[in-house]
Design goal:
The structure holds two protein chains of two kinds. Chain A has four helices and ten strands. Chain A is α/β, with parallel strands linked by helices. In chain A, a hairpin with a 3-residue loop joins strand 2 (63-67) and strand 3. Mean pLDDT of chain A is 81; it is low at 3-9. In chain B, helix 4 packs parallel to helix 5. In chain B, strand 6 and strand 7 (162-165) form a beta hairpin. Chain B is of the alpha/beta class. Residues 1-5 and 84-90 of chain B have low confidence and may be disordered. The chains are: A alpha/beta, B alpha/beta. The interface between A and B is large, with 53 and 45 residues. Strand 10 (166-173) of chain A pairs antiparallel with strand 1 (38-44) of chain B.
Chain lengths: 176, 177
């Protein structure tokens, strides 16, 4: 306090920001340390709840297919909407691909979108001649945990037809 | 520095630009930092084509598969422990049934028992690493993930500090309609 007074006398009323600087430096270091540029990002919402798994395998960049309870999105571009149907046996509501959007198990719109991605990726691999860019048929699947397997199967089948045979299911790292 | 202080001529360090920088960096990093870390589970499509004919002189493999139904897990394979139950005549039920009848939710599936059973199989077939999942169409995706977790490693059997690996290579088969 007496120090402040003397300062005021000098017409130099500076803020004592030393403690704040200390705090900020610590926060900055902590945040920089926890800052990680992950190859994939998940926009979790009510319709997209990623399941928790004990897997520890780090994600790698690949074509990103997001299957929420509402729609299917490939690399950020909307592909088609899903519908809610009532199961006749149990009476529960379940997500399903609309009947008019698929041929057998093949989801036509998703097939077209993925095929284009595959062609582009192959083209890139040929043009660069770099093994890193070679087409490996990898696809990242972000699916809502409440989806029935029938939807997942149709998505997997469609991806398989579009030359994507290596699936990576995106999960949240957790102990349970 | 001490020299300057002694002379009382020292200019105070101008921290304002640094403060500006730090105040901008902190909100940005707070926004970008993710407190949820992600992982992936690898899986491949089953090979398309007729099943390979197994000849007698070929070494017998376990060819383990797990059917996931609304009653529980049914583990199938070439192991004697799994076969004995099939020969009882009647329709064999799931050998790892749900904790509650009708499997009301993902929690009801007895993944601990599944891990234990797979651990037993791994004891007899130490070289096997593959498992085929055959889920029913209305099985929830979360159950699938839990099954894969249960089949991958055994957290209760930690030899050498790491959970014991069971069957880490999962293939998901289409299953019957």
């Amino acid at each position: 306090m007496p120090k402040k007074k003397s300062r005021r006398g000098d017409n130099d009323a500076g803020l004592t920001i030393t403690s704040m600087m200390d705090m900020m430096t610590i926060i900055l270091v902590f945040l920089l340390k926890s800052y990680s540029t992950e190859d994939i990002s998940v926009a979790a919402s009510d319709d997209l709840q990623i399941p928790v798994s004990t897997s520890v395998k780090p994600p790698k960049l690949a074509v990103n297919v997001v299957v929420s309870r509402k729609d299917i999105v490939v690399d950020g571009a909307w592909v088609l909407d899903l519908e809610q149907v009532i199961d006749e046996e149990t009476g529960d509501e379940q997500t399903a691909v609309p009947e008019d959007k698929k041929r057998g198990q093949l989801v036509s719109d998703l097939y077209d979108a993925l095929l284009e991605k595959a062609e582009n990726a192959k083209d890139l691999g040929v043009r660069t001649g770099n093994a890193d860019f070679e087409f490996k048929g990898e696809v990242l699947l972000q699916c809502d945990r409440r989806l029935p397997f029938s939807v997942i199967r149709e998505v997997m089948f469609t991806a398989g037809q579009a030359q994507f045979g290596n699936f990576r299911f995106v999960v949240i790292k957790g102990s349970d | 520095m001490s020299k300057g202080k002694r002379g009382e001529q020292a200019e105070e360090l101008d921290l304002v630009p640094i403060m500006n920088l730090v105040t901008i960096l902190i909100p940005f990093l707070l926004m970008a930092s993710s407190f949820v870390s992600l992982a992936v589970i690898d899986s491949t499509l089953p090979a398309i084509g007729a099943p390979q004919e197994s000849s007698d002189d070929q070494e017998e493999t376990l060819s383990l598969s797990i059917a996931v139904t609304d009653e529980g897990f049914t583990v199938m394979g070439n192991d004697t422990a799994l076969k004995s139950k099939d020969e009882e005549g009647e329709e064999p039920g799931p050998n790892v049934p749900c904790k509650q009848l009708g499997c009301p939710g993902p929690e009801a599936y007895d993944t601990k028992e599944l891990t234990r059973l797979l651990g037993e199989l791994k004891d007899r077939w130490p070289d096997e690493e593959n498992v085929i999942l055959v889920p029913e169409p209305d099985v929830e995706y979360e159950v699938l993930i839990r099954t894969m977790d249960a089949a991958r490693n055994d957290p209760n059997n930690t030899s050498g500090g790491k959970a014991r690996e069971l069957f880490p290579y999962v293939v998901i088969a289409g299953g019957a309609e």
